């Protein structure tokens, strides 16, 4: 009861459209079934495709995707649309609903839309031999798996994959109309952070549980421009490292000045490291090249702060006298307790005789070396050996740091840039 009036309305609408169509189109559309593909009983229909890349708007490392506006053109032959003449017919895009069109879709698309200002951006053109040209203007956001290990000296290879949704390889076959030249627009494309180094096309098949489907893949390689990161991150971090070395030329007695430089450079480097990660995925497991470099710079800055702490500690524990430490070191290494007690009494009664004390024979008065075999004497001898490695003049620590820190930083930089640029 309800189906008959609805069917009558559809017939009337079709007849109304037929009345306003030109006679040639009416002749073509008459008896045409848009629900059946061309060559329904005579093998698959071949569909050629080409692309024009109008723009690549954004490339996001956080979301691992890129957004592009493309002109997608599809071409196939439908023997039911042949007509007499030598000129093609350009139809209104809204007449696409009356014809069969391929069910092509973008595989890795997260979201896409067809432009509809001022009308839907679709083109349909029919040639006398039944060839159909169908063009669309689409903006799509496509997933792109990125390897950020060498960020920001990385290269990324992204793809745009086109497949048939419902027709398998027995119904439809895809091919690029002009091979690698089927994709245009990348040569004149200008991106903010990237340069398109190479691009090529390929033809393959997608295998699913429901069958094998035709697939076209467009590959393009993007190289990141490193100049921005050199000015934004690398040069400031190098300058902070150099600034931390200024403390080596400041007197060790100027505690506030050296501590201020060390703490300020450490905090500034920490802020720079946090700012460098704001444009990257927070849960990314990659150790990136920029993280390695910032870690190296932070280590040198923190090392400069520790250097002053060590130098200041050695300065505070340095004795003002040079002879008395030798005497006490000699007494600590004395082999017998009786001889040590006599030498200490002699030193306390006459401090000026310290030189003669150090030259006193250890085996005087017939003392034997019974004490040398005790554990305490062994520990004292080990302490004497360790004393040889003490810094005699803590002020020389700064002199060593002035040479070792810059040289180490230059060597590490050479290995860093060679590895990440050429390997």
UniProtKB/TrEMBL annotation:
GO terms for cellular component: apical plasma membrane; chloride channel complex; synaptic membrane. GO terms for molecular function: GABA-A receptor activity; GABA-gated chloride ion channel activity. It is found in: Apical cell membrane; Synaptic cell membrane. Residues 233-325 form the Neurotransmitter-gated ion-channel transmembrane domain. It catalyses: chloride(in) = chloride(out). Residues 25-225 form the Neurotransmitter-gated ion-channel ligand-binding domain. Keywords: Cell membrane, Chloride, Chloride channel, Disulfide bond, Glycoprotein, Ion channel, Ion transport, Membrane, Receptor, Signal, Synapse, Transmembrane, Transmembrane helix, Transport. It comes from the Eukaryota. The chain crosses the membrane at residues 226-250, 256-280, 292-311, 403-422. It is a multi-pass membrane protein. Belongs to the ligand-gated ion channel (TC 1.A.9) family. Gamma-aminobutyric acid receptor (TC 1.A.9.5) subfamily. GABRP sub-subfamily. Pi subunit of the heteropentameric ligand-gated chloride channel gated by gamma-aminobutyric acid (GABA). GABA-gated chloride channels, also named GABA(A) receptors (GABAAR), consist of five subunits arranged around a central pore and contain GABA active binding site(s) located at the alpha and beta subunit interfaces. When activated by GABA, GABAARs selectively allow the flow of chloride anions across the cell membrane down their electrochemical gradient. Pi-containing GABAARs are mostly located in peripheral tissues. Heteropentamer, formed by a combination of alpha (GABRA1-6), beta (GABRB1-3), gamma (GABRG1-3), delta (GABRD), epsilon (GABRE), rho (GABRR1-3), pi (GABRP) and theta (GABRQ) chains, each subunit exhibiting distinct physiological and pharmacological properties. This is Gamma-aminobutyric acid receptor subunit pi.
């Amino acid at each position: 009861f309800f189906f008959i009036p609805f069917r009558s309305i559809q017939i009337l609408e079709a007849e109304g459209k037929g009345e306003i169509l030109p006679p040639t189109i009416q002749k073509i559309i008459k008896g045409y079934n848009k629900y059946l593909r061309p060559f329904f009983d005579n093998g698959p229909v071949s569909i050629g495709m080409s692309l024009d890349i109008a723009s690549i708007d954004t490339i996001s490392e956080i979301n691992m995707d890129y957004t592009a506006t493309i002109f997608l053109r599809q071409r196939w032959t439908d023997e039911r649309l042949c007509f007499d003449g030598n000129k093609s017919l350009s139809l209104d895009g809204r007449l696409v609903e009356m014809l069969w069109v391929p069910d092509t879709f973008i595989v890795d698309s997260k979201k896409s839309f067809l432009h509809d200002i001022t009308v839907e951006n679709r083109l349909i053109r029919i040639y006398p031999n039944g060839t159909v040209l169908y063009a669309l203007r689409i903006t799509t956001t496509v997933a792109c798996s990125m390897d950020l290990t060498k960020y920001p000296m990385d290269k990324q290879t992204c793809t745009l994959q086109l497949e048939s949704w419902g027709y398998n390889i027995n119904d439809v076959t895809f091919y690029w109309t002009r091979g690698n030249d089927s994709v245009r627009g990348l040569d004149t494309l200008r991106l903010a952070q990237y340069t398109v180094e190479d691009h090529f096309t390929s033809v393959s098949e997608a295998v699913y549980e429901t069958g094998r489907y035709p697939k076209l893949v467009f590959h393009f390689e993007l190289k990141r421009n490193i100049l921005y990161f050199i000015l934004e991150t690398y040069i400031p971090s190098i300058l902070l490292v150099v600034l931390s070395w200024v403390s080596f030329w400041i007197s060790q007695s100027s505690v506030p000045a050296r501590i201020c430089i060390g703490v300020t450079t450490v905090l500034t480097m920490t802020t720079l490291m946090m700012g460098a990660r704001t444009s990257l995925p927070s849960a990314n497991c990659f150790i990136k090249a920029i993280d390695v470099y910032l870690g190296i710079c932070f280590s040198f800055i923190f090392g400069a702060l520790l250097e002053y702490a060590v130098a200041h500690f050695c300065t505070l524990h340095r004795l003002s006298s040079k002879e008395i430490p030798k005497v006490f070191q000699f007494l600590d290494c004395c082999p017998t307790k009786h001889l040590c007690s006599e030498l200490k009494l002699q030193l306390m009664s006459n401090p000026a005789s310290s030189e003669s004390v150090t030259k006193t024979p250890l085996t005087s008065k017939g003392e034997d070396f019974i004490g040398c075999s005790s554990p305490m004497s062994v520990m004292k001898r080990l302490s004497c050996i360790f004393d040889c490695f003490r810094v005699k003049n803590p002020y020389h620590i700064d002199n060593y740091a002035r040479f070792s820190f810059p040289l180490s930083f230059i060597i590490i930089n050479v290995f860093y840039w060679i590895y990440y640029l050429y390997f």
